[in-house]
Amino acid sequence: MKLFVVRHGETEWNAQKRLQGHLDSPLTVNGIHHAELLSKRLKSTCFASIISSPSERAMHTARIIRGNQTLAIETDKRLKEINLGSWQGKTFEEIKEMDPDRFENYAKHPNQYYREEKEAENLTDVVTRVKDFLKDTEEKYQTGNHLIITHGVVIKVLQLICKNYSIDKIWEPPEIEGTSLTIIEIKDGERKLLVEGDISHKE
């Protein structure tokens, strides 16, 4: 079984360096173009399922990559980006001003990052739901290729899980750019990263 995990294409807020979280903004011209290039790259891969975050930026990317295939796009809210509460919709600079210590932890000391806001998630919350998603997907499908369209933090968490790393290593390279491809092979209960954050289709 292989999971072809893709980050959504670049959005308007990505270009403005605004954090999106559970909020949303449309794909840019570049984001659409890069998704089209990835669609061509994956054209010969036969997928048994397509599972997307319900966020429109992910769904739009999924529809582009699917192309003319008739396969339905399933949605799973466990693939949504981390909920960043009051930070959502703000630029990095705005967040640094309003919440400097917590933002410092988020960016440089992720194991010390903690949110008390009712709606906001901690990184451990994302780990829990992504592990749950992986377990259910492995039990449901067991074989075949599966296209997963999701978000940057979710993909970094998937890397942590596959490598059995702790949260303090979440921002280690490679960077997860828009439409980057990460491939996870699952065999006999073992999860192996075959490709991480590949963007060769953009070149």
Characteristics of this structure?
PG/BPGM_mutase_AS, globular, His_Pase_superF_clade-1, Rossmann fold, alpha/beta, 37% helix, His_PPase_superfam, 203 residues, hydrolase, single chain, 6 strands
- Strand count, sense and closure of the main sheet? 6 strands, mixed
Portion in beta strands: 15-25%
Oligomeric state of the chains present here: single chain
CATH topology term: Rossmann fold
What number of domains?
Answer: 1
Mean pLDDT: 97
CATH architecture classification name: 3-Layer(aba) Sandwich
- Provide a count of the helices: 7
The CATH superfamily appears as Phosphoglycerate mutase-like
* C-alpha geometry: globular
Helix content: 25-40%
Q: What order do the strands of the largest sheet run in, or round the barrel if closed? A: 3-2-4-1-5-6
Structural class estimated from helices and strands: alpha/beta
What series of H and E elements makes up the topology? EHHEHEHHHEHEE
Radius of gyration: 16 Å
Poorly predicted segments: none
InterPro entries: His_Pase_superF_clade-1, His_PPase_superfam, PG/BPGM_mutase_AS, Phosphoglycerate_Mutase
Organism: Oceanobacillus caeni
Keywords: Hydrolase
Protein name: Phosphatase
What does this protein structure show overall?
This protein has 203 residues and is an alpha/beta fold. It has a single domain, classed as Phosphoglycerate mutase-like (Rossmann fold), CATH 3.40.50.1240. 37% of the residues lie in helices and 17% in strands. It starts with a strand and ends in a 5-residue tail after the last strand.
